[in-house]
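cron nightly-structures :: item 1 of 1
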Amino acid sequence: VVVQFDKRDVETLKLIKLDLLGLGMLAAIDETLQLIEHDCGACVDLDRLPEDVPEVFQMIQAADTVGVFQIESRAQMQTLPKSKPANLDDLVVEVAIIRPGPIQGNAVHPYLRRRQGFEPVTYLHPSLEPVLRETLGVILYQEQVMNIAIVVAGFTAGESDGFRRAMGTWRSTKEMEKLHQRFVDGCQATNGLPEADAEELFRRLAAFASFGFAKSHAAAFARTAYESSFLKLFYQAQFTVGLINAQPMGFYPVEVLINDAKRHGVAVLPVDVNVSTYKTATEWVGPGRQRAVQSGGCVVPTAESRSRLTPESATGYGIRLGLALVKGVGEHHAERLDTELARGPYETLADVVARTDLPEEAIERLIRAGALGSLGRPRRELLWQLREVMGATRGSKVRGRAGGRTENWGPRDGWSRPGGWSAAPGGRGRPGERAGGAGGAGARTGGWTGRSAGRPADLRLPPTPAPELPALTEQERLGDSYAVLSLDAQRQVISLFRPALDRLGAVTNASLADRGPGPVRLGGLVVTRQHPMTAKGTVFLALEDETGMVNVTLWPDAWARLRGVVRRHALLYVDGMLQREGNVVNVVAREIRPLPEAAERVGGE
């Protein structure tokens, strides 16, 4: 029995309260496991997954975590090379530390410095050591707060739970003030803390108000983070497909996910109406089809670990992008599209129009996305003929009413069409009329009726041949792909600008790993813009090029000066300073311009 009682009523009734979280990652993992079983004949049992696979932690320490649960954000990627999680307990800390509570409680930087050996582990008072030893003297978990209240301030277990609740309610500040003096007095009486130290300890605990993170929660998340890391490392194609089909979720758009997969050697195949199902799927391409790894930041398993943990076939699968990624193709089209695909290939544009029943705008987008390339006709020819084919295949489309009469929208030539579009006096067609014995705009032959019914295939005339049209340029092809799909299977957009970027003295993102601190110039596509409340006006950009991503920081004064450019443009040229702290690189922006404008100045396209 499920009841919708308030949580306080549940407690009064002595029932157990459980919070059930809906996580998109669980859907992605579930689909990943099904794909692995289907593709590789392997049943991965996550409950029996070893918790000490070294390559998994190597990948995590390298911050190669795009798509991984909880540790894929730019903040986490900046932290992982410093904290270097080496086991599941370390991963629990990592999941818990990039949270508003630890940030506001000033726990993040002390922990990282101590973890790297740059700072000794210290405690505000010796009585805190048993409680905070596992987190190197900083407060990270709600359970630690409760233990401090018991061990240091002399609270009972019941009082410590009230202390914890006070931090988690919407009126936390008011509730905490009631306990303030009780806590300070208890610290002095129980362990002899000086009043100043007791006040400082209370201040640190109060910074957790409303943001405390339970260790049990962090442990569950860390386990899921580890499982998703394993699947990403050893089954990249299946895992990426699971992520794409579970969207919207996670930190990055689909484009970043597929570019990351390509950098890890996974072939990404374009949308194709004769191959693609509605959802993105895996497809066998053979081991020879994968692309070479482009970035040194990518971690791939050794042959030895693959032979031990994955079937050999796992490396032979690529990703076939699904029709769902095309704007305008929705879930209500899924069953029809998959059914028609199973019936057999489409041979002509009229075949696609008749069998899919997609609206004209959606078919136009399929053409622009290259999804009809397997028909063997140029895109501009298909676009030229689409309106005529739509009319010939499905008959008239009611466009509106004028003067009380139904108007029929014909092909590109306006309101008339050679070869059978009826025309009433005044040039406007009426449903059901016939002109000169030919089938009218609204007329149906062979007994076909209904507004969207089409002509039988044997009565359709072939479309008017298209005139000689210029072939699509690569810029136009890529522009259409981004406009319709928001991505391109073949290349990342910044590769078009690489010759101009070379003339500008810009470097690739992948090369930053080998550069020392100093001036640097970059070009990239903005993947995320973050303006966190805890950053005091600092803005962070994730900038992607064809080789990888980099974090770009805009201090408050730079943001005030450059915000117009950053907000209006997705393609940016950044002139800044490279900072590095160990293996962590970051670019502090000094000047930012639109990339097309910067490229044009040096004669680039």
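cron nightly-structures :: done
The radius of gyration is 31 Å.
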